[in-house]
Amino acid sequence: MKKLRTSLSVAALALSLGLAGCSTPSTTAGTASSVGGTSSTAAAGATAAVALDTLDTLAEDTHYDADDLTWDASSEVAVTLADGATVASGSDAVKVDGDTVTISAAGTYRLSGSLANGRIVVAAGESDTVRIILDGARISNSSGSPFVVQSADEAILYLADCTTSSLSDASTYADQGTDAPNAALYSKADLTIAGSGSLAVEGNFNDGISSKDGLVLASGNVTVKAADDGIVGKDYAVLLDGAYQVTAGDDGFKSDNDQDEGRGWVLVNGGTLNVSAADDGVKAYNTLTIAGGTTTVAKSEEGLEAQHIVVSGGTTTVTSNDDGVNASGGSSSSSGGGMGGGGMEVGDYSVDVTGGVLTINAQGDGLDSNGNASISGGTVMVNGPTGNNNGALDVNGELAVTGGTIAAAGSSGMVVTPSDSSTQSGVQVTLGSSVPAGTVIQLADSAGKVVAAFTTTKAAASLVFSSPDIIKGQQYTVYTGGTATAAAGLGGGSLDGATQVGTVTAGQYTAAQGPGGGGGPRG
To answer: Do the Cβ atoms of 375 and 398 come closer than 8 Å?
Structure first.
């Protein structure tokens, strides 16, 4: 296993690897679309040089090596699964005992067929890379996990083009010991999932996919339903490309190593991640980075949670019953970090938005940091709580706005505004009474030009807005109603039919009632 560096260079990893279209599989070599592979061959070629540099960097930070996704097809070992009649051709490394198939050496193994009550076991050497191609394989187990990697340096699960495979475990495991498997796809070694085929995973007992080492999702069309956590990579969990749909009884997509320094991080760098979770949507013990792709947390208690949260690209949409984006937990205690402007302790926690689009719909706090937060690029849209015990923004320390666009609507009881360190100006709008969902709140400059039009998705009594278009010291007129080009969030607007409700001056914020704010003029 490669050594993991403590800090991950997100800028160097900002690459989107695309899924190849469904086509006839190659008969001469594995075709993994390891570099590029969007639906446009030309687009893939145009980014090939960047892809190679990025994959080199990724290989240093994780176990992932794109070269592992290509192979000589003539070296494949065919394993045809059948109840009581599984056949493996041409390899002493495959042993069949009833409906248990054990693979004991490095190599490439193509699995097809089905087992109603079987198991695939990888028990290879600690330096072995085992590549398993699921070619329409369907495996279930009535007493435990159907797919277990007991030992290897790395296991690669490759989903064959134009095929659908499935893994389904028991609702109760016969072996529930401390180190026993607890997921439908369980690995004690580094695990990579790749290929353009499809895989359905049902974790009826506990987790859906779990790696006790590192996990890289390079591609694939994967659906996971789990009684507990959906997808877990202990040391790190990385999504490069593919489409992953997760429904979880606890957390959706996470990394949970809380023992080793520099571990327990999550990176979404491309692809599509859709999560519906009973607890946290996407969670990291250390750092959670979204650098690309499309991430949707459709249901959660807390949408994104980690000690440090970085959004530098992509499109992220979060819906939560509690906090939408929450920088908390992790390896830091809240003590020892000093006190915020509202008397709250400031710990080693952070939310940093440098790019991308982040949309939050939260019943609790919208964007919440138990430390500091910064917005220097991208777009942040928050539809926060309707109750006054939470806020659209909740930052214990500094909320530094130096670029980008932020529109945070919610109740007026706990309003947090940009801090003194902000270099980009903004306005705080406090409405006389709450306006209903679907109301357009607009800001116009002295010439009557609309500089912001925000359509609420729930009742709101306040709006904090900052963008490069807001000029410090200038007065803006606030309107409700009129028309907007966006059914929700930010878009263009027209004042036809709008009602003037007041004026605000850029850079002048009233004393916030939340923990992170303060009064007086600022940036």
So the answer is: no
At 388 the three-state DSSP class reads: coil
pLDDT: which is higher, 52 or 304? 304
DSSP letter at 12? Answer: H
What CA–CA distance (Å, rounded) separates 441 from 381? 13
Instruction: For residue 199, give Cα distances in angstroms to 131, 134, 208, 264, 273.
Output: 16, 9, 12, 25, 15
Return the structure tokens found at 513. 């009632």
pLDDT at 267: 96
Q: Please report the pLDDT score of residue 204 as a whole number.
A: 98
Question: 19, 219 in Cβ contact below 8 A?
Answer: yes
Residues 6-43 as b/e (b if ≥16 CB within 10 A, e otherwise) read: eebebeebbbbbbbbeeeebeeeebbbbbbbbbeeeee
Lowest-confidence segment of 61-65, 252-256, 461-465 by average pLDDT: 61-65
Question: What is the pLDDT averaged over residues 24-34?
Answer: 39
Left if phi > 0, otherwise alpha if psi is -120 to 50, otherwise beta: which for 473? left
pLDDT attached to residue 164:
98
| Nearest partner of 185 among 218, 243, 224, judged by Cα | 224
Quick count: other Cβ atoms within 10 Å of Cβ 344?
Answer: 17
SS3 sequence of 21-87: CCCCCCCCECCCCCCCCCCCHHHHHHCHHHHHHHHHHHHHHCCCCHHHHCCEHHHCEEEEECCCCCE
pLDDT at residue number 469 = 96
Q: Are 224 and 246 in contact (CB under 8 A)?
A: yes
Give the count of alpha carbons within 13 A of 159, CB side only: 29
CA distance 65 to 424: 42
Cα–Cα distance for residue pair 383/458, rounded to 1 Å:
7
DSSP β-ladder status, 221-226 and 138-140: unpaired
DSSP 178-243: TTS--EEEEESSEEEEEESSEEEEEESSSEEEEESSEEEE-S-EEEEEESS-SEEESSEEEE-SSE
Sequence-separated (6 or more) residues with CB below 8 Å from residue 486:
453, 455, 492
Write down the pLDDT at residue 523.
Answer: 52
What are the pLDDT digits (tens) for 83-106? Answer: 999 999 889 999 999 999 999 999
What tens digit of pLDDT does each residue of 145-157 get?
Answer: 999 999 999 999 9
Q: pTM value?
A: 0.88
CB of 81 within 8 A of CB of 105? no
| Contact present, 516 and 416 (Cβ < 8 Å) | yes
Torsion on CA atoms 240, 241, 244, 249, rounded to nearest 10 = 10
- Give the distance, in angstroms, between the CA of residue 474 and the centroid of all CA atoms in the same chain: 39
Gap between the terminal Cα atoms of the chain? 49
